[in-house]
Amino acid sequence: MDLPFHLKALPPEALDVLRYFGKLNDPVAHAMKITDEVGLSDRTFGKVIRRLVTKGYLQMDGDQAYRLSESGSKAVEELVEYDADFPADNAVRKAPVEVKVSRKMVVVVPKTLQSGVPTAFHVGFYPSTPDHELNDVADVVMRVSLVNAEPTRPQEASVDLVNEEAYKTFTVAAGEFNKARIKVQVFQLGPNPDDITVAGGMYVDLDVTESASSAPIAAYTSDISLTKQVD
After folding, report:
1. Which of 21, 54, 128, 153 is 20–30 Å from 121 (CA)?
2. What secondary structure letter does DSSP report for 193?
3. Segment-wise mean pLDDT, segments of 10 residues, the chain, 231 residues
4. Helix pair angle (12-22, 42-54), 10° resolution
5. Residues 131 and 218 occupy one common structural domain
6. Residue 171's closest CA among 220, 117, 209?
7. Counting beta carbons within 10 angstroms of the beta carbon of residue 50, is it exposed (0 to 12), middle (13 to 18) or buried (19 or more)?
């Protein structure tokens, strides 16, 4: 038999999770057990389990436990039949390895700010270097906090970071002190809502004057660390 279309749409790791549930006497398993037995990284598990729950193959059954649903049981039966006809497709896959890659972040802002005047500045990333390329989109959040400047609440922007350059624009209005600070923190989001990794950050101290209309533009850089998966 051919693999049903609704199963073809699932990633191979999701099919392996269904196969694992098909071997259980009681079709309930804890997240940690699934991760260990199927050989998944935490990030891959998050993507796979969310897909299986969304499609209705698995159901939440308590804290971090999942139960095979009726449609999931039917999918397992279809997989068993398919694997009997094509056993080579049921090969054990190695879990992807998570590695760190470095990326240069840049803050582009006037060297001197004019007190009380809103000024636009940019926070972004240089293109990837050959030895530090991403093989998938990195979901990144930049959080900008200001000291002795407005707005007082942090500004945030999301970036679907790939290997090309990318940037976002923010605003700073310096106060009456002779110095203002721009602080940038970068976070990488994972597949689960609570999966947030600190990728790095930097801060820039700038002079503040009553008149800075012709202040030169400067670029300040720092390296951040991103996670990618390697098969």
Report:
1. 128
2. T
3. 82 91 91 90 84 92 90 93 75 66 97 94 97 91 97 95 96 95 94 78 95 88 90 61
4. 80
5. yes
6. 117
7. middle
Integer Cα distance of 83 and 120 in angstroms: 59
Stretch (H or E) spanning 221: strand 217-230
Range of the domain at 115: 97-230
Whether residue 101 sits in one domain with residue 81: no
**Hey, what are 111's tokens?**
């060297």
Q: What DSSP element (H or E) covers 114?
A: strand 112-114
Do 81 and 106 fall within a single domain? no
Pick from 93, 102, 101, 103: nearest CA to 44: 93
* Amino acid occupying residue 134: L
Provide the token pair at 194. Answer: 């609570």
- Among candidate residues 40, 73, 90, the one where a domain is terminated: 90
CA neighbor of 195 nearest in space, from 40, 42, 13: 42
Residue 181 buriedness (CB in 10 A; 0-12 / 13-18 / 19+):
middle
- Domain tally, the chain: 2
Residues 67 and 9 in one domain: yes
Partners of residue 179 on adjacent β-strands: 207
Same domain, 33 and 123: no
